[in-house]
Amino acid sequence: VGGCVGGVLQCLVASPAELFKVRSQVLDMITSPQGTKPRLTAGMGATVLRDGIPHGIWFASYEWCKGYLGSSDKSVEQQSWAVPLFSGAFAASVAWGVGYPADLIKTRIQAGRAEGILQATQELVAQGRTEGRNISVVRILYRGFSIKLARAVPASAIGFVTYEYAIAAFEGKVS
Asked: For 46-58, what is each residue's pLDDT tens digit?
């Protein structure tokens, strides 16, 4: 629940920052299809979908994997750094597996290619269907997923190792 709340609250900063990033990446699309400047909140709904529930899933799957690997009853000195490393990698994979379609939709909205979630989704599906017969909706909504994981998995793995050792250091369990 804390992860979900944190994910939703971070959208207030993340969505405008993502809008700036996306617009900087696609300078030829500075205005929307209707010729208007984008709202600062463009893509906010999709950002909430991308970050809200997936952040909760990220932390829950991390804790589940850490427990599954048997580290929950061991101190940081007793456990291998591999436990939080692999748990963080697992958590990133699961969380982005849930949130990636919303990220794709958010980017499309912020790039000025669609006005809202429904329109962006419909256009993505239509575009995928015109590019090739028999392309599944799932495949369309997960385009670029492996590239996202190539960045997110190591970042999450290293982040959770750092988190575990920082907590242990604050508690005086690591010298």
From this structure: 776 677 788 889 9
